[in-house]
Write a structure and sequence with these properties.
Elements (H helix, E strand, L loop, with lengths): L1 E5 L3 H12 L3 E6 L2 H10 L3 E4 L5 H6 L7 E4 L4 H13 L5 E4 L8 H9 L4 E3 L1 H12 L7 E5 L4 E7 L11 H8 L4 E8 L2 E3 L12 E6 L4 H7 L9 E5 L3 H10 L4 E6 L2 H10 L4 E4 L5 H6 L7 E4 L4 H13 L4 E5 L6 H6 L4 E3 L1 H10 L7 E6 L5 E7 L20 E8 L2 E4 L11 E7 L3 H7 L3
Parallel strand pairs: 1-2, 1-4, 2-3, 4-5, 5-6, 12-13, 12-15, 13-14, 15-16, 16-17
Antiparallel strand pairs: 7-8, 8-11, 9-10, 9-11, 18-19, 19-22, 20-21, 20-22
Helix pairs in contact: 1-14, 6-9, 6-14
Length: 447
C-alpha cells in the first residue's frame, strides 16, 4: 500500500516506523529537514521537505497515487486543510488528527467527509475514553470490549494468590469452564507467548483472557483479584487528556484534578462542572495526604512528563491507592512501568496507531488494538463467504503460529473459541496475534 504521512512529530514518526516494517511504501512530509534526514537514516522511507498544505509539496509526494493519506501534525488546521487538498488531488482515503471534540459531532464529521476527510482522529479523547474503560474492572492491566461489549479481553497479572497458578491451560479449561473464557496470550520475561494446552501459568505472568461479560467476575476470582467500587478519583495534570477524562468521569465519580499551573487551574474552574481543582504538585506527599489520599480509589497521572507520571503513581501506590493509571509516552519506559506495578498505561502513539492500522488491512476489520504491554495486537474481523477460515473446525485449521482465535459473535450468539468450533461466513471473530503472524491470519479471512 502507498501511504503518505504528513507530520514527523511523535505520532507521525511512530506510524512511519510501524508501517514501514509492514512492507508498505511510506512517504513522509515535514517542513523540518533535520527531522526528515534523521528518519531517512533510520527507516526505509521516502520523504518530501515542505509544508503539507502546499499543493506543490503534495504533488511532489504523489498523493494522487496514494492509498492512504495520514495528517498527524500538532496543528489541526494544517491537518484538515492538507487532508482536503490530498483528497482533491486523488488520495483514496484521508485521515486527519484533530484536537477539538466539536469536529467529531456527527453533523460536523459528515460535513468534513463531504469535503474530503474520511476519518478524524482525536488522540486525547481516545486516551481519555481508554482511561474511563480501565476503571470498569479494577484489578486488570488492560480491558477492551468487542461487538459492543459482548466479548471482553482482560489483561491480568498473576500473583501468588491466583487459583490458576501452576495449572496447564488444558486443566484450567477442564476445571473452570472452557465454554466461558479462553486464555489467548501470556507475557513472561518481556516475551509474549501464544499458549497451548500443555503450557503452565507461572507467578508474575501477565495473562490475556477473552471472556463473556457474565464470566468476568469469575475470571478475576480465579486470578485472585478482589473487586471494589470506585468512588473517589484524583487526576494529576490538566493536560487535554486530563481535562477530557475529568469531564467524562465527573458524571459518575468524585473527581479532583491537581495541577501545578495556577492559570490553568483558574481556567478549569469554568470548564468543569463538579470536579474539584487543586493548585499543587501531584508528587508532593504532604499535599496528597492533605487531600485524603487514603480515601482515593483511583489515581490517574497524565502530565506531559512520563517520568512524573510513573513516579506519581508509585507514590500513590505506596500510600495505599489500589488502582493507578499513568500516561507513558516514552515507549522505552513501558516495560519498566509494567514491571514495577503501574496498573494501566496510556500511550497516545499506540492508541492512534491502533485506529489507523486497520485501514491498511485488506479485510473488514471492525476493531483493532495494539496492546500496551505486549508486541501483539487483538482485532475483530468478519469472515467472508468462501474464505479459508470457514472450511474446517478450528482444531483442523492449522491456524498460523503466533495467532489464536479467542471468540466468535454469530448473530445473537456469543461463542468462546474451542477446537470443535467452525467459523461461518458473516461471523465476527476476535483474534489475538503477534505482528509476525498478521499477514498469514488475514489470508484465512479473504476469499
Amino acid at each position: 500500500m502507498n501511504i503518505v504521512i504528513a507530520g514527523a512529530g511523535a505520532v507521525g514518526t511512530h506510524l512511519a516506523k510501524m508501517l514501514s516494517r509492514q512492507e508498505h511504501n511510506i512517504l513522509l512530509i515535514d517542513s523540518d529537514p533535520a527531522k526528515i534526514e534523521n528518519l531517512e537514516s533510520q527507516l526505509d522511507i521516502m520523504s518530501v521537505v515542505g509544508s503539507c498544505t502546499s499543493i506543490g509539496a503534495l504533488k511532489d509526494a504523489q498523493v494522487g497515487k496514494c492509498d492512504l493519506y495520514i495528517a498527524v501534525n500538532t496543528s489541526e488546521d494544517q491537518n484538515i486543510n492538507s487532508a482536503i487538498l490530498a483528497k482533491k488531488l486523488g488520495a483514496k482515503r484521508t485521515i486527519a488528527r484533530v484536537n477539538n471534540s466539536e469536529y467529531l459531532e456527527s453533523e460536523n464529521a459528515e460535513y468534513l467527509r463531504s469535503i474530503g476527510i474520511d476519518t478524524l482522529i482525536y488522540p486525547e479523547r481516545l486516551a481519555a475514553e481508554e482511561i474511563v474503560a480501565s476503571l470498569k474492572q479494577i484489578g486488570s492491566r488492560q480491558l477492551h470490549e468487542f461487538s459492543d461489549g459482548r466479548l471482553i479481553l482482560i489483561g491480568i497479572k498473576l500473583w501468588d494468590n491466583a487459583l490458576i497458578l501452576n495449572h496447564t491451560l488444558a486443566k484450567m479449561g477442564e476445571v473452570y469452564g472452557a465454554d466461558e473464557f479462553r486464555l489467548v496470550a501470556v507475557k513472561r520475561d518481556n516475551r509474549t507467548i501464544i499458549p497451548r494446552g500443555n503450557d503452565t501459568l507461572k507467578y508474575g505472568d501477565l495473562i490475556f483472557v477473552v471472556t463473556k461479560p457474565t464470566f468476568v467476575h469469575n475470571v478475576f476470582a480465579l486470578c485472585g483479584k478482589e473487586q471494589f467500587e470506585i468512588k473517589n478519583i484524583v487526576i494529576v495534570g490538566a493536560s487535554r487528556i486530563g481535562i477530557k477524562a475529568a469531564s467524562l468521569l465527573e458524571k459518575h465519580y468524585n473527581v479532583k484534578i491537581i495541577e501545578k499551573d495556577r492559570e490553568k487551574c483558574i481556567q478549569l474552574a469554568d470548564r468543569l462542572k463538579s470536579t474539584l481543582i487543586i493548585n499543587g504538585d501531584g508528587r508532593d506527599m504532604t499535599l496528597l495526604r492533605e487531600e485524603g489520599i487514603k480515601n482515593i480509589d483511583a489515581f490517574i497521572s497524565v502530565t506531559h512528563s512520563s517520568e512524573t507520571n510513573i513516579l506519581s503513581c508509585l507514590l500513590a501506590k505506596k500510600m495505599g491507592v489500589k488502582k493507578s493509571v499513568a500516561e507513558v509516552e516514552n515507549i522505552d519506559y513501558i516495560d519498566l512501568a509494567e514491571n514495577i506495578g503501574i496498573g494501566t498505561l496510556i500511550n497516545t502513539k499506540l492508541i492512534v496507531a491502533s485506529h489507523i492500522y486497520r485501514y491498511t488491512m485488506n479485510v473488514d476489520v471492525k476493531h483493532l488494538k495494539f496492546l500496551t504491554f505486549s508486541e501483539a495486537e487483538v482485532f475483530e474481523m468478519e469472515a467472508e463467504t468462501g474464505s479459508k477460515i470457514t472450511k474446517h473446525q478450528l482444531k483442523d485449521m492449522n491456524f498460523p503460529e503466533g495467532a489464536i482465535i479467542g471468540g466468535v459473535i454469530r448473530g445473537s450468539e456469543t461463542i468462546i473459541a474451542k477446537g470443535d468450533v467452525q467459523i461461518q461466513a458473516g461471523d465476527n471473530v476476535v483474534i489475538f496475534a503477534l505482528q509476525s503472524a498478521i499477514k498469514k491470519v488475514i489470508k484465512y479471512f479473504q476469499r
